[in-house]
Amino acid sequence: MGYTQAPSLTSEEIESFLREAKIARFCSFNKDGTTHAVPVWFKYENGQIAVATPAASRKARNVKRNRNVTVLVDVEKWPQKGVIVYGEAELEYPTGYEEHMSATVPLCEKYMPRDEAVNWCKGLFKISGPWAKIIVKPKRMASFDYAKDVTFETVAKG
Fold it and tell me: The domain containing residue 46 runs over which residues?
């Protein structure tokens, strides 16, 4: 019997993990069919993943052309666990400064206190120009949690 897959997270564990995790890897398709994978800050709410990005970024351009994306959220330390989200992305383009702030500040508050998030987002608007918000609606999810895997416990003990 061969090894196939680590045990999955429960639905509740997935929800909690996606709300608490800090970094995701956002994967979209380049024009030539290759995959563009980049680390991103994100916010998980209402069953969807939100990512803010400059409107002219490769992520935004790729989503505009092909809405199919994959988002990997994981932890690298042992025992690894993570969630892979296969979904469809939608782009929202906030118009003007106020809409930019209302779209980006809540996302940045996951990473810093509100006053710092406001200052950070003000600076982003100044240096990057218009921003887009990418909303990923999951079609399906896969998860893994090696802490639940007795195979690796046995191997680790020798």
Answer: 11-95+130-150
